[in-house]
User: Fold this.
Amino acid sequence: MSLADDGSRPDPGWYKRAVFYEVLIRGFADENGDGTGDIRGLIDKLDYLQWLGVDCIWLLPIYSSPLRDGGYDISDFFQVLPEFGTLGDFVELVEEAHRRGLRIIADLVMNHTSDAHPWFESSRSDPTGPHGDWYVWSDSDEVYPDARIIFIDTEKSNWTWDPVRQQYYWHRFFSHQPDLNYENPAVADTMIEVLRFWLDLGIDGFRLDAVPYLYEEEGTNCENLKPTHEYLKRVRREIDSQYTDRVLLAEANQWPSDVVEYFGDDDECHMAFHFPLMPRLFMAVRRESRYPISEILAQTPAIPDGCQWGIFLRNHDELTLEMVTDEERDYMYAEYAKDPRMKANVGIRRRLAPLLENSRDQIELFTTLLLSLPGSPVLYYGDEIGMGDNIYLGDRDGVRTPMQWTMDRNAGFSKADYARLYLPVLQDPVYGYQAINVEAQTRNSASLLWWTKRMIEVRRQHPVFGLGSFDELGSSNPSVLAFVREFGDDKVLCVSNLSRFAQPVELDLSRFEGTLPRELLGGVSFPRIGQLPYLLTLASHGSYWFQLTTEST
Amino acid sequence: MSGFALEQALELSLPGHRWFAGKGRTIAAVTVAASVTLVEGPVEARLVTLAVRYDDDEVDHYQLPLGFRRGELDDETQRSLAAAAFGEIDDDGPVFVYDALADPSLTAVLLDAIAEERVVGPLTGHRRQQLDVAPGRLLAVEQSNSSVVFGDSSILKFYRRLQHGRNPDLEVVLALSEIGSAHVAPVLGWLETTDPFPATVALLQPFYRSGTDGWVSAVASVRDLFAERDLHAAEVGGDFAGESNRLGQLIASLHADLIRALPVDEAGPAEHSRLATQLHDRLREAVQAAPELESRRVAIAAAYDEVGTLDIVVPRQRVHGDLHLGQLLRVDTGWVVLDFEGEPARSLAERTALMSPLRDIAGMLRSFDYAARHLLSEHPGRADLEYRAAEWADRNREAFCDGYTDVSTADPRKDAVLLRAFELDKAVYETVYESRNRPTWIWIPLAGIDRLIGRATGADGD
Assistant:
């Protein structure tokens, strides 16, 4: 199917059924041989992503930037970072992706710019000039005292003194990332122009980075304020009135009960990440108890019809521990970060496979949960082949090493000299590219890559995974998580063993009496459901997906 | 219908039920003490109360809600009710008699009686709030009572053994419900009778479909520890101490609610001395039943003597009475305490008496000990793992007491003399129970006793 000639048949709910795949352009494929991945390299790999079966590619920032914060410090909203390519390359990427039925969304930072942005240069040097009021300036650094400091490792205050303008400027993140002043209508209008620019080039949507912080107000913690929501509603109106099938994904690292605010009344963002689910998946498996998961899902409020959660196991950032309690955070550190280098900010920087000690059955368990719990799953590049990390690289680079395509030079990522690579490819005996790469796994149908592909395929055949209701089933075994997803007649029962030991479970399925569970991967029919508790036995970390059918055999 | 035939059929089937507490005793006579017709027609339902008289002239009363179906049963009915059969009696042709709790069409009548506050002969239904009516199904796990779940929303606990007066389970949970305690499943309604004497028939509470009991979770943690032979209890992923701490907080908070909802008093030297006498009496009986206790008797008695000479005043209140990990239900939002009937073997007066809250704490501490050790009984690596088990038990017992202290501000470990005596009393009771029912487990309470008297006397146990 091609999206390009599909314009006459809009599919506004596509993101509710989609599987997302997060790509670091820098780390995916290097076409021009300069050691850094680029847009043309990604275009070359679109066939692979189509084969894998994902629906939408999520790109990290692609804009001009001095790269002091991985591109989240934008210095020109209307240009592609030259290392990545040109605007022309980007347009070609969108067209080629759409031709293959893939969509593209990209990160966009609306809250702040780089201090190298010409707007900031102009604002600091010419307080009365055209950009004088585009940032948040103050004579005192004691304004907004209730706003927490997010990067507690590096920043002492949300205010930094600017020797040029002789005033403090406000920044919720690094001091080289001044916050834009949304109170100024020119700023608010211009940022909508930025969105339009990229939407006109065909982009399918944005992940809006750091949205809770757009507006400030004395006496508050300066997060999730009403004017911020009103602005986002305005953005949504502008997009809905001029474009079809576009999506806004809010990055708000907050509790689900606060994040739902970003869905508005189906008139704000279409999607938001469910942050606390992820650390609790890890906690649940480590404790062999479903309750960390049950608890957070029970606390997750209902969301409007047109909205969807984005869920993930790992991404380019650290394993986020902000949404667990202190006691639980200590627990996570002890379990998953035995080496202090693995801690970063208040998180842990590991990829999925090393976090799970490279256990294939645990990787499969986590991926199975990711693909079946309510929300649209987001895969992180390389996790489909079980790539590792390099914790000795600085900051969060440890999980951003080059994609491992083949066992050839530089893992097939680049033809550049090894020393020129933006980060070294992994070479260790367990996770190195000689052992873990796409080519080898493509040839072995028992590989993690093929397994992942098959699971995505099954998910695609059952819209219920994206659209269905979620109903957790109880059982007397706390190590087994069982739930039913339902969408009309499409009913799927998912059962997972969170324990390292084989487990039996008796499920009360009397509500489905008379139906026949058919296992979704192999199509094997299981005994018909009766009145009595339904007995299943699960291998260690094993899972089942059953379709509940009313057919006669 | 011939009553004689019915009584015979019921008598024959009694020993096969887990709720029948008279196993091993000789039944002298079984008579119908009361019978109320609940449903008339081709499928008939009656609530029958049996008086079971043993050869020592003691009498127990059991409630049996019975279904009666005349004539040939179709295959479907036969299959679905086979497990509930009490037998077949002859009353101008065969009549199939079965447990009415297994028949949704009959249990609906019980729910309806509560929901509509009906009076049916000696029976009266009471409700605390509006109820949804949904089809009922009997929970497969048979315990000392039988439970029917209606829809996914409520559970009716049917007290098998009928006792004079209001069942403490209803009394305590109702009092806690009235003050809005968050730690129990609130009373939705109940059913009472006046025949053959005033008693609680059944209790309706919310059903927590996704709940699991604390015992299973604790055992999952122990199993995890045993699989990691080189790691300590504090280091393994399945560590339970966080939950144990929360359980300590929960019980402290429950005790505070019980103080608010029900009477309290204080115990001084006279009461301590009476308590010591009681403990000694129970020990004497236990030693006769379980000779393994003989070598430990003197040391245990010494611990009880210390109670008898205590010169302090301690608060007493209503307590749970039979608290252990299996009485705590983990639901999605936290923990709930179940089953306030008290120890089934004790008399109603004993179960409703005011006691030190340390009784419940002792129950929990023993329960952690059991959870840590019961997997070892058949474990080939028992000798190696005993150390790990002790580590797990200590860690979780401490976490529980820490959590309790956080909420109550009174550290139960400071009342060492009383707490030790209650723990010993519990372990002595367990020893007798194991020697009768699971002899291969008897070392678990004995090891607990040894630890307690070892600490008390400074010796290495026996």
